[in-house]
Amino acid sequence: MARKTSGTTRREGGGLRVGRVNTTEGVHPYDTLEWELRDVVMTNWRDGTVNFEQRGVEFPTTWSVNATQIVASKYFRGAVGTPERETSLRQLIDRVVDVYTSTGREHGYFATEQDAEVFDHELKYALAHQLFSFNSPVWFNVGTSSRAQVSACFILSVDDTMESILDWYKEEGLIFKGGSGAGVNLSRIRSSRELLSSGGSASGPVSFMRGADASAGTIKSGGATRRAAKMVVLDVDHPDIEEFVETKSREEHKIRALRDAGFDVDLGGDDMFSVQYQNANNSVRVSDAFMRAVETGSEFGLTSRTTGDVVATVDAKELFHRMARAAWECADPGIQYDGTIQDWHTNPETGRISASNPCSEYLSLDDSSCNLASVNLLKFLREDDTFDVEGFTSLVELVITAMDVSITFADFPTERIGETTRAYRQLGIGYANLGALLMATGHAYDSEGGRAVAASITSLMTAAAYRRSAELAGVVGPYEGYGRNEKAHTRVLRKHAAANDDLRTVGALEEPVHEAATREWARCLETGERHGWRNAQASLLAPTGTIGFMMDCDTTGIEPDFSLVKYKKLVGGGSMRIVNQAIPRALRNLGYKEEQIAPIVDHVAEHGHVVDAPGLRREHYEVFDCAMGRRYIQPMGHVRMMAATQPFLSGAISKTVNVPEAATVTDFEEIYYEGWRLGLKALAVYRDNCKVGQPLSTSGAAGETVEAPKPVRRRLPKKRPSETTSFSVGGAEGYITAGSYPDSGLGEVFLKLGKQGSTLAGVMDAFSIAVSIALQYGVPLETYVEKFTNMRFDPAGMTDDPDIRMAQSVVDYIFRRLALDHLPYEERAALGVLSASEREARLHGEDPVQAAVQVESYAQSAAPAEAPAPEKHPSEDFSEGFMADAPLCTTCGTRMRPSGSCYACEGCGATSGCS
C-alpha cells in the first residue's frame, strides 16, 4: 500500500496531528488482511500429552503456525473453554490498542478526535501486519483486570543496611512473580573486610547473594518453570571483588565434583539445588582507571565502603586475568564499562547509573523500569532491495508515541520504581531481523558494509525517536527530571549526532538511511532545544525472544542468522526442513542467475552450509556466515557489530559473544579489552561446553571418503565380536547391537526400538539392514555420523548416557554412540563427538587422547594424498557451530536458540530471560 504522509506532526499549542501512512480513511486496518480459523494443539515433548489446546482461533493467513501458537497460548486472556477467552488476534490487539488510544485522548496527546482515530488505526495495522511488537508484559496485562504492568526491565537499589537488603529480596521476588527481570548493584554494601557498628565483622555482599539466589530459584519467573532473570553487579574497586569474580567458577568446580560422584547436576537435575549463585548473571563494573591500570600493569586500590579509604591494592592485570579465567570457566562474570556508561548518561545530576537489567541492555537510574518495543526491519526492505526510510521513520514516531502513553497508565511493582519511571519516562525502542536484512541484501554480518547498514539504521531509529520525544515535550511537557539535567541531556544528544556525522557509508543501501538520520538529528536538536525532551532514554537493543517469534522474525535483536537451514511448522502438525529464504535473495543481489542459484540452494539444503557449493565464489562465503554452522562468525565480528551501533543507542545491547570451546583465557582478555577500547557499555562472553549443565555441542564435518570405482560387499564372518548398548532418549528406551570385523571396524548395526511387530520396530529393522549393508560396501561410519547427528525429531531430550547427556533424536544419539565406540579420537574431534572424559581433559588443558576410551578394533583404510586445500575461513577449523549447547525448553523440549544474552524457544516462545 502506498504511504500517504510522513506520519504525525506536532501542532503548536495543542496535540499531535496524525497523518495516515499505511491506512485508508473508511477502511478498517483489519480489512487489509485475509483471515482464517486455525486449531492450536501443543503437546508435551516427554509423553505426547496435550499441554495447550484451543481450536478455532482467528489469525491472518500471513501469520505462521509458530506465531499463531505462541500468541494464542501465551497472550490470549481468559480461561480456555469459557466465553471470556480471547479467540482472535483482532481481540488481542483491540484490547491493548484501545487502552493506548483512550489514554492518549484523555491526556491531550492528540489535536482532534480524528487524529486519535488515525493513531488507533495505524497502530492496529502495524501490529496486525507484524511491523513491530510491544514487549510481553503489555500483551499479558494491558486491558485486563490485572495491574497494567508494561515494563519488562527493572533496576533496583540496595543500601548498606539490613532493612534495605531485606527490601531487595522482597522487591526482586515480586518482580520475578510477575514474569519480569531485575538487576542490582551491591557495591554500597560494606565488604567482609570491614566492621559493623556493633564491632563484629560484616558478611559482605557475596554472602547476601546466597539468600537472593535461593529466593529466585524458589520463585522462578511468573510462576513458570524457567529460572528467574536477574543481574548482580559489583564495582571493581570493592574490597570483595576477588571473591565475587570467582563465585560462580567455584560453584562450577563443585558441580563437576558432584557429577563425578554420581549426583544429578544436569539441566534441571534433582541435585542442582545444592549449588549456589546459579540464578543470576554476574557482572563486574570496571572503571576507566582500572582499565588503564590493566594497560600499564599497575596496582589498583580497593576502597572501603564505609570510609572511602584504600584498604588493599591488587595487580590490575592479574585481577583482569582472573575475571577472564572465571568467565572462561563458567561464562561469569560479564563486564560493564562504567566510564562509557556515565559519559552517555542523560541524567547525571539525578544520580549515577549503577546497574542494568538482567540482559544488560537497559542502563539507567536506580529504582527504575523500562518498557520495550521492537521493529521488524525486514518489513522495510522493499522488493527492489532498497530500505523504506519514510515508512521506518513514521513507524518509529508512532511507536514512541504509544510507548510514552503507556507510562501514563502503567502500574509498577513498587512506589519508588513508579515515581522514578514516571519522572524520567525511560523507553526502549529497538529492532529485530537485522541479520536477515543483511544476508538478504548480500552483506556479510562481519564486514564494513554490514556494520555501515546497521549503524545507519540504528542512528535513524534513535534520531527519529528523540525527535518525536521532543515533539511530545512540546505537546504534553518534558519529563519531570529534565530541568535539572538539561545541559547533560543536550550534551549526550549532540554526542549521538556527532557520531552520526562521523559515520561513513560504503554502499548504496545505507546512503539514504544515513542522509535521513542526519536530517533527523538536526530536527531533533532544534526541536529539543525549544521544548526539551519527553523521555530520558529512547532506544536500546533487547533480545526480542518471544515477540520476535510473534513477528515471524528470522533473527532476533542484533544477532546474525542462526543457521542456513531451519524448521518450519506446518498446519495440522509436523514440520518441514527448509533453506533460509534470504539465501536466494542474497544470491540475486550478488549477481547470480536463477540457473546458478538452484544448485547452490540444493547444496545448502543437503549440507547446511555453503562451503564447496557449486558455482558460489569463495569471496561470497562470508555473506552466509551464521551464528553457528560450518562457517560461523568470528567472536570479534560480534564485538565490532556492537561497537558500530552502540554510539546510536541510549542504552546498551543484549548480546553474548559466543566463542568455541578451544578459545583461551587470553582470548577472553582480548575480547574484554577490545570491548572497552571500542566504546561498548557492556559485554558477556560464553565459551562452548564451559558448563556441565549444558548438552553437547552439535558438530558435523564433511568427512573425506575414497570413492571405490566398483564397490564390493565384504560380509562379516559367521562368528564376529559384537556389543549391545541399552539407551534411553527422552523416556524412549532401546538397544544398539553393533557387530565388527575381527580385524577392522564396524560392519553391522541392529537397532531395537518399540514393541515387536509395531510399525516403528519394522522401520528401525529396515533402517538397520540398510546401514549394515552400506557399511559392508565400504561406506565409512564417519559419513553416517556426519549425516545423522543433529537430526531433530521426537523423542528427544535427556539420555541415560554420561557421555551424551542430550540428544536431538534417537538417530542423533545412536550415531553419536557408535562414533564414540568405533571411531578414533582425531576423527571424532573433527566431527565434534567427544566423551565426557575427553571434554573434561580439554577443559583442564590436558591431552584428550589419553582420556579417550574407545574400541581399538577400528582400522583406518589408507587415505590418499590430499590436494592442497584452499585457504580456509578461521571458523572452518570447527566443523559445526558452538552455540547449539543451548538448553532444551522446559515447556516443550525444543532446543532453544540464543537470543541476546538469553535463550528463546522457537517451539513455544518461552524465554530464559527478558522478552
Largest sheet: 10 strands, mixed
- N- and C-termini, Cα separation: 31 Å
- Helix tally? 28
Q: What gross morphology would you assign? A: globular
Write down the oligomeric state: single chain
Mean pLDDT: 87
Uncertain segments: 1-6, 221-226, 694-709, 853-869, 878-884
| Helical/strand content category | alpha/beta
Number of strands: 27
Strand content: 15-25%
Helix content: 25-40%
Radius of gyration: 28 Å
EC number: 1.17.4.1
Protein name: Vitamin B12-dependent ribonucleotide reductase
GO molecular function, one term: cobalamin binding
Catalytic activity: a 2'-deoxyribonucleoside 5'-diphosphate + [thioredoxin]-disulfide + H2O = a ribonucleoside 5'-diphosphate + [thioredoxin]-dithiol
Q: How would you explain this protein's 3D organization?
A:
The structure is a single chain. β6 (153-155), α5 and β7 (181-185) form a beta-alpha-beta unit. The two termini are 31 Å apart. α14 crosses α19. The chain is globular and about 95 Å long. Strands 5, 6, 7, 8, 9, 12, 15, 16, 19 and 20 form a ten-stranded mixed beta sheet that branches. The chain has a three-stranded antiparallel beta sheet with strand order 21-22-23. Residues 1-6, 221-226, 694-709, 853-869 and 878-884 have low confidence and may be disordered. The chain is α/β, with parallel strands linked by helices and 915 residues long. Among the domains are: 1-129, no CATH class; 564-625, no CATH class; 722-861, no CATH class. The protein is built from 28 helices and 27 strands. Residues 1-22, 697-726 are annotated as: Disordered. It catalyses: a 2'-deoxyribonucleoside 5'-diphosphate + [thioredoxin]-disulfide + H2O = a ribonucleoside 5'-diphosphate + [thioredoxin]-dithiol. Its EC number is 1.17.4.1.
